[in-house]
Design goal:
By secondary structure, the chain is α/β, with parallel strands linked by helices. Helix content is about 35%, strand content about 20%. The protein folds into 2 domains: about 140 residues, Rossmann fold (3-Layer(aba) Sandwich); about 170 residues, Glycogen Phosphorylase B (Rossmann fold), CATH 3.40.50.2000. The model has no long low-confidence stretch (mean pLDDT about 90). One of its GO terms (cellular component) is cytosol.
Amino acid sequence: MRRIVFHQNGFGDLLVCFKALYAIKCLYPKDKLVLAQKGFSDENFLENIPFIDEIYTGDKDFENLKSDIFITNIRNSSFFKTLHKLKLGRIITQPHLLSLLYFDTPMPYKRAKLHMSEIALKLVRAIDKRHYDTNFSKINFKEVKNLLPSDDTLSEKFFNQNKQFSKIIALNIFGNQTENIGFNPLPKTWLDLSKNLSEKFPEILFILVNFTHNTLQFNIKEKENLKVFVNSDSIASLVAFCNRLDGLISVDTGIVHLCDILQIPSLIFIPKHTFYRFSGGSYGGKCEKFSLENGYQKNYAKIMQIFYKKANHFTTRIKNENSI
């Protein structure tokens, strides 16, 4: 039995790599799959995923993992210099000047318009190309959604109080990465959008999503079909909440990738430079993208009018799906 270590940091970035993790376990069920990560704070969630055998949290002491194969999705020259000094068995990385000198890399390598989940799968293929090509088509990635831990303690109570609606759409306005680059629309813009949608579609429940650890919290007057749901730090709780949704409107952040796995239709406000990498739809669900260049704020009012129309069209489609 080999020890295959897959290394990826972050919350959303790690969720995007669940395809690769699941593929490794399906292709090599007798081997032990070790996830090495830093930044995904809910270790309990990861520990209860059946296709991951072991969790290591940190960015040091990789040698103690005793890997036979060490796969990293981190592409960084200083990190590669560190890896080169360690005894980790066979190391598989994305192509880089240093990785081409020291490690195994998937070649030929084209990633210009690939989703990050597909890029991570290239690393999995590098373990054994023939075995991968022969058996990859047998993997049912849609099954991943049924393997995620779920805890409906919070969401069950919330939805029991809001049973009378035909459809449920969540709006998520917070995202650390896009906030850090100044890309997210203003909170007031999102609040106005949620109010407009709730007035136009009274038969649909709209939910503003937030988290207990967020510094900013909503202080709005809720209406019958416009509510606020504040999740705990539990990702299993977020899974249960998202499983009740018919649609998601969001900035590019972790909940987008979770709803991608769960195949929840989504409309994503996303930077153009990450358009191909991190939008949804990679598990067969529907994902609409509203992508913009950085600096779109110069025409903020006009851009937001277009986004409002896009959100209305998205909501209309969700409303009409499976209707008799």
